[in-house]
Amino acid sequence: MKNPIPNSYLNNLEPYRGGKSKLSGIETIFKLSSNENPFGPSELVIDAYNKAINDITIYPDPLNDELINKISDFYSIDSKGILCGCGSDEILHLLARAYLSGNDEAIVSENCFAVYPLAIKASGARVIRAKEINFKTQIQSILGLINNATKMIFLANPNNPTGTIISYDEIIELHSKLPSNILLVLDEAYAEYVKVESHKNYFDLVNNNNNVVITRTFSKVYGLAGLRVGWAYCPKDVVETLSRLRIPFSVNSTAQKVAVAALDDQNHVINSVRHNTDWLSKMELELAGLGFSVTPSSCNFLLIEASSNLDFSADEVYDFLCSKGIIVRQMHEYNLPNFLRITIGTGEANKLVISSLKELMK
Ligand SMILES: Cc1ncc(COP(=O)(O)O)c(C=O)c1O
């Protein structure tokens, strides 16, 4: 008997593995493995969530009108260019499905977000990695890889898992040197956390060109990772193309309503970012003081290496932190086995990370 055969290019795809969220036998857990907001959503958002239960019997608005109009007002961008998805992950996958196939190539930075290679390979195309220096994206190395097969570039700025950022001017230069048929996808999942003074948003790059897409998410600073809402700002042609592909109700009605409320509560965003900025520098100093190599971050997490002067491997550090109820992210799937990625948590969680590491190093 013959079995159905999937597309051959799917054979070598490893499914995405998220950060662990449970530890057996430990009650109080601090999950610092997926860069969520440690404070969760605001009161206002919880109210909106409770009210949204009244609508769960009816299908959601397939056009996401209320949310799109809210995003459009908030960022002063054209509502016709906005597309919402079940997390920005959905939109990244839709982009790859729509613009890549067979012999195409898509360029990513060497240590890019794990979803890009998955989305690219799931379209049958090839992933081309551009060398980084000190975990920083190099636009010259991206430009050097462009050839006739290149159809897309996926770039997170700042980047996950490295936390590094490149300047606005570098992105503008990269775009100015791209052939116009190459789609540049700028993933700004961590935009709200950026504290670099010269940093600006790229909405005008979308307004003025047909080959730039920006993705954003409600999963990080807005504290809604479990509801799955993301969005993209795109040229109109791209919105039309993706609208043909997307399933009609990918953003559920609760998620649509709650995301609107989240945008209305900017105090929560400001407080969350302030906490992050304070703790990011404290954690950087503490971790470096303990002997880890710490990559400077513009996000809500730090990538650290259990460098050779330490007596412990990253796996040993990971296991010890787990024994204390702290879950950080191992980096094996990113091919960085001696690294860990640690989300900035509540003050209590951060202090526990440091005191636990001090105990280990004693
Ligand atoms: C760079 C980057 N892009 C996109 C996402 C996905 O976000 P969402 O929850 O909106 O799918 C993440 C999540 O970790 C991320 O780090």
Structural summary, described in words:
It is a single chain. The chain is α/β, with parallel strands linked by helices and 362 residues long. The protein has helices at residues 43-52, 65-75, 87-99, 115-122, 139-143, 168-176, 203-207, 236-245, 253-264, 266-289, 314-323, 347-361; strands at 30-31, 82-85, 105-109, 126-130, 150-156, 183-187, 212-217, 230-233, 293-295, 301-305, 326-327, 329-330, 339-343. It folds into two domains: 16-41 and 267-361, Aspartate Aminotransferase, domain 1; 43-264, Aspartate Aminotransferase, domain 2 (3-Layer(aba) Sandwich). The protein has twelve helices and 13 strands. A seven-stranded mixed sheet has the order 2-8-7-6-5-3-4, with helices on both faces. Strands 9-10-13-12 form a four-stranded antiparallel sheet, covered by helices on one side. The N and C termini lie far apart (62 Å). The chain binds pyridoxal-5'-phosphate. Pyridoxal-5'-phosphate binds at residues 35, 87-89, 113, 156, 160, 187, 189, 217, 219, 225, 230. Residues 35, 87-89, 113, 156, 160, 187, 189, 217, 219, 225, 230 line the site of pyridoxal-5'-phosphate (PLP).
Question: Mean of the pLDDT scores?
Answer: 96
Per CATH, which architecture of the largest domain? 3-Layer(aba) Sandwich
Helical residue percent band: 25-40%
CATH superfamily of the largest domain: Type I PLP-dependent aspartate aminotransferase-like (Major domain)
Q: Which structural class is indicated by helix and strand composition?
A: alpha/beta
- The count of helical stretches stands at 12
Unreliable spans: none
The hetero compounds bound to this protein are:
pyridoxal-5'-phosphate
